[in-house]
Amino acid sequence: MQISVIGCGYLGAVHAACMAELGHDVVGIDVDAAKVASLSAGRAPFHEPGFEEILARNIDAGRLRFSTDYADLADAQVHFIGVGTPQVPGGYAADLQYVDAAVDSVIPYLKAHPDGPTLVVGKSTVPVGTAAALAKRIAAAGDGVHLIWNPEFLREGFAVQDTIAPDRIVYGVPADESAARASQAVLDAVFADLLERDIPRLVTDYATAELVKVAANSFLATKISFINAMAELCEATGADVTELAEAIGFDDRIGKKFLRAGVGFGGGCLPKDIRAFMARAGELGVDQALTFLREVDAINDRRRDHAVELARRAAGGTFLGKKVAVLGAAFKPDSDDMRNSPALDIANTIAGQGAEVVITDPAAGPKLAELRPDMTVAEDAHAAAAGADVVMLLTEWRQFRDLDPVALKAAVRTPWIVDGRNALDPAAWRAAGWTYSGIGRP
Ligand SMILES: NC(=O)C1=CN([C@@H]2O[C@H](COP(=O)(O)OP(=O)(O)OC[C@H]3O[C@@H](n4cnc5c(N)ncnc54)[C@H](O)[C@@H]3O)[C@@H](O)[C@H]2O)C=CC1
Ligand SMILES: O=C(O)[C@H]1O[C@H](OP(=O)(O)OP(=O)(O)OC[C@H]2O[C@@H](n3ccc(=O)[nH]c3=O)[C@H](O)[C@@H]2O)[C@H](O)[C@@H](O)[C@@H]1O
Questions:
Q1: Which residues form the active site (predicted)?
Q2: Which of 18, 67, 199, 437 could form a disulfide with 72 if both were Cys (CB 3.0 to 4.6 A apart)?
């Protein structure tokens, strides 16, 4: 089937390559000419395990191409929308200008297809009510053109795997029964390979589909802030939050996942999605339903301040004249995404308070050096730690989890480690002569 993917960022580029991997003929459209040039040359513009391989393979097979010209999507039957929905500048609500622009640009090319309806398929994360409004504009383009809302649940670092083998697929379909049936059949054909593997597919209305996405991210953010709140209690009592998380996680109603206490959640999604959800609830007059998310957000912010305090204590009460090595710049391992990264935020704060900060990240390092010439970016952990008074592990890359405390001790001025992700074995580091300071653990 001929498919277009509009918006080729972390979500869209991976989606385009994965759709080609499923055998479809795909064109990815983006307004960023540099990104399109990089993708067209088979070079991933961001770090995502496994992505570059499927990108290059499908370009070579002639099933995948990228363009800045919307005219190149004219023959596609299915148009996925994956443009960004960041926070509006200075506010909490989602900025829909990119979704609106993408829809405006695709509308002139929407026409009924000989093989059934033409579909616009929304994947971007949007406030509830957006799909219904877009559906009206799309329906005005002509008969046989419909909108399905198909939220995306992929995690960065696992994006390829999550796209090809998701936990579930959700379709928000039009209220009109025959439009719903016909458009569902087209999207089923796109995902035929996944559906054959019995991946659950839930069909619902637009509003439910939109809410499923923000509800899932809100639940995940709440789990993280819950365990970070428990870390605050553990710190006040000398208890160990990692043991607490393990013990409650044995109850499979709770589960072990997403209970890693630390410097909290960041990235291009969880923080802005819970804020946009609160803003939308306010517009709908049900803001009270989500006041708990304010606390989730506040707990998350506090963890960053707390990490700064742990480092200040380690530095002897002041950062002035002290060198701090920061291990990690990306918001999570196996990604080079630094959007709302706790690691980078903490590094900025510490630098702003007078420390000499040297930062290193296995994937984000080169991008950081380019974007932030004011920062000292080191090649690896040993180079960053040379002469440091404090070492902070803020993104739990394997390279950092596997560090040898004896070897690293030889590089630093003072062997004091702040483990902001509880990723290290405190006993091993203490045995090697380090002062170990974790999050919510003695
Ligand atoms: N990054 C992720 O892991 C996931 C993201 N999402 C959602 O997907 C959406 C996209 O997120 P990301 O890929 O992370 O953002 P991104 O910022 O990496 O990519 C967005 C892309 O859209 C392009 N764009 C903007 N306006 C355009 C237009 N009018 N026409 C064509 N292209 C245009 C930009 O140049 C950019 O390349 C957001 O709504 C996000 O919440 C959902 C699930 C996972
Ligand atoms: O909407 C989105 O964009 C995506 O947002 C998250 O995915 P992602 O942001 O890639 O990363 P996560 O693995 O969820 O991690 C988010 C943040 O939480 C932190 N985290 C995660 C788990 C945990 O136990 N503790 C914790 O602090 C991570 O370090 C990271 O900063 C969701 O997990 C995806 O399902 C969703 O599709």
A1: 269
A2: 67
ipTM of the complex: 0.99
pLDDT tens per residue across span 140-175: 888 899 999 999 999 999 999 999 999 999 999 999
- Residue 12 beta carbon below 6 angstroms from any ligand 1 atom: yes
Kindly state if the Cβ of 217 falls inside 6 Å of ligand 2.
Answer: yes
Mutate to test the pocket of ligand 1, among 15, 30, 128 (most ligand atoms within 8 A of CB): 30
Which CATH superfamily is 214-297 part of? N-(1-d-carboxylethyl)-l-norvaline Dehydrogenase; domain 2 (1.10.1040.10)
Do domains 214-297 and 300-437 share one topology? The answer is no
Q: Is it true that domain 2-199 has CATH number 3.40.190.10?
A: no
Structure tokens at 171: 């379709």
**What is the secondary structure of 97-166 as a DSSP string?**
HHHHHHHHHHGGG---BTTB-EEEEE-S---TTHHHHHHHHHHTT-TTEEEEE------TTSHHHHHHS-
